[in-house]
Specification:
By secondary structure, the chain is an alpha/beta fold. The chain has three domains: about 80 residues, Udp-n-acetylmuramoylalanyl-d-glutamate--2,6- Diaminopimelate Ligase, Chain: A, domain 1; about 230 residues, Mur-like, catalytic domain (UDP-N-acetylmuramoyl-L-alanine:D-glutamate ligase, 3-Layer(aba) Sandwich), CATH 3.40.1190; about 150 residues, Alpha-Beta Complex (Protein-Tyrosine Phosphatase, Chain A), CATH 3.90.190. A hairpin with a 2-residue loop joins β25 and β26. α4 packs across α10 and α8 crosses α9. The protein starts with 5 loop residues before the first strand and ends in an 8-residue tail after the last helix.
Length: about 500
């Protein structure tokens, strides 16, 4: 973990300070916004949160060794305090200063959009490694530094953790970092203090309206990545999905040159002669007068877009097109993204993270294309999240499937049966079983499947837990499916 050694007055030199108390020459060696994680020498940020207020824990932070505080109101504590109007909005800049502005020493790529972020970061990581780079990655599946895994619990970590990770990457000789950038992260300032060199946009479909309230606000949050592509490192570039309706607005928001990719519209990187098979996608990319053959081993038209975005990035950053294509061809898949569970059974079992109407429609359509028998879909919706997408998810699943198991996802503090009822308002024209126990639903789907069928288990993908109330319980769709298949006598051909 990188450690700092910088005086407080230098840390706060780049922000608007309303007032301050105490010695501004105090030495700061780290930063925290969680009083339980404070180390001696830390600057503690008192952030008023959605449930608790960091000011209430400042005394505990000082007792643990915090040498200064960033506050929105002065506290009766004998340490230097810096008062600002909004701690959350400045904490990223402060953390960047504390950890040596690490993004200025990296090539930093940000990937945003509703679906495809994780996959594209993985593809870029692979392309970078193929071209001799040490690569760092931050995203939904956790972080990696030159192949070493670091667990994480959200798509984009809090701003201090982001800067610590980037600082650690610099210390370990990483030259390329790629990060999933969620709409929450953009609107809450988690990536403030990051100098991005490239912004990539995947698509925009309904999600997170429990937080953003409207699609316009959701799109605006996404646009912030492209509206802030500035800094000392040049050149900057925005790589945007030219087939998405949000393309025009994001193009206008971008302060960097725009490069487009897609299948249908007049774009810079266009996929032609697309062939979708049960094993993956094969197509040609046309850009200018050049054509490059691509093979990527994940089925579905959504995979074409993911591969296109990564290919465009690689070529724009100066890598040989053939080498980029070789990197894409070497990727066997991303955990929890259209991932097969194979124990020798005569039917397919696919696990996917799809948890939005558009994401579910994409994977249902893809599974439908190669399924000779019935498509059996197992899915639910998360609790304490956007309720308006529940009937839409039901409608999408019903339209493309032959049988549904409507079950729990992560119900959190909501009643699982009530969530299921809301999903079912969109279900019609298909037989279904409503069953809150997700394990039992997966087991029943496996018992029901016949040769040639496909079971699609959607919503959780790579997740290894299920949340009931505020408690986290171990649960992995892939492992539960394997257990169900073994219970049916399969497994001798596990691979």
């Amino acid at each position: 973990m990188p450690t700092a050694n910088i005086v407080l007055k230098d840390i706060i030199s780049g922000i608007e300070v309303q007032a301050s108390t105490g010695d501004s020459n105090v030495i700061v060696r780290g930063m925290s916004m969680d009083s339980r994680l404070v180390q001696p020498g830390d600057l503690y940020a008192c952030i008023p949160g959605f449930q608790v207020d960091g000011h209430d824990f400042a005394a505990a932070a000082v007792a643990s060794g915090a040498v200064a505080l960033v506050v929105e109101r002065f506290l009766p504590l004998e340490v230097p305090q810096v008062k600002v109007s909004n701690v959350r909005q400045v904490v990223g800049k402060l953390a960047a200063m504390v950890y040596g502005n690490p993004s200025e020493q990296l090539e930093l790529v940000g990937v945003t959009g509703t679906n495809g972020k994780t996959t594209i970061t993985y593809l870029i990581e692979k392309i970078g490694i193929k071209n001799g780079k040490k690569v760092g990655l931050i995203g939904t599946l956790g972080s990696r530094i030159d192949g070493r895994s670091i667990p994480g619990d959200r798509t984009t970590p809090e701003s201090i953790d982001v800067q610590k990770l980037l600082g650690e990457m610099v210390a370990e000789g990483v030259s390329l970092a790629v990060m999933e950038v969620s709409s929450h992260a953009l609107s809450l300032g988690r990536v403030t203090g990051c100098e991005f060199d490239v912004g990539i946009f995947t698509n925009l479909t309904q999600d997170h309206l429990d937080y953003h309230k409207t699609m316009e606000d959701y799109l605006y949050a996404k646009s912030l990545l492209f509206a802030n592509l500035k800094g000392s490192k040049q050149p900057k570039i925005s790589i945007l999905n030219g087939d998405d309706p949000a393309f025009r607005e994001l193009s206008q928001a971008s302060i960097a040159p725009v490069v487009s990719y897609g299948i249908h519209n007049n774009v810079d990187y266009r996929a032609e002669n697309v062939e979708v098979t049960t094993e993956g996608v094969r197509f040609q990319v046309r850009y200018g007068e050049i054509i490059q053959d691509i093979w990527y081993a994940t089925p579905g038209y959504f995979s074409v877009y993911n591969a296109l975005a990564a290919f465009a990035w690689g070529v724009e950053r100066g890598y040989l097109p053939a080498t980029v294509a070789e990197a894409l061809a070497e990727i066997s898949g991303v955990p929890g993204r259209f991932e097969s569970v194979r124990l020798g059974q005569p039917f397919q079992v696919i696990v996917d993270y799809a948890h939005t109407p558009d994401g579910l429609e994409n994977v249902v359509r893809t599974a439908r294309d190669f399924t000779k028998g019935r498509l059996i879909t197992v899915f639910g919706c998360g609790g304490d999240r956007d309720r308006t997408k529940r009937p839409l998810m039901g409608e999408v699943a019903a339209r493309g499937s032959d049988f549904l198991f409507v079950t729990s996802d992560n119900p959190r503090t909501e009643d699982p049966d009530q969530i299921i009822k809301e999903i079912l308002t969109g279900v019609s024209g298909v037989d279904y079983i409503a069953l809150a126990d997700r394990r039992e639903a997966i087991e029943m789907a496996c018992q029901q499947a016949k040769p040639g069928d496909t079971i699609l288990i959607a919503g959780k993908g790579h997740e290894t837990y299920q949340i009931f109330g505020t408690e986290v319980h171990p649960f992995d769709d892939r492992e539960v499916a394997r257990e169900a298949l073994r219970g049916l006598g399969y497994g001798q051909m596990d691979r």
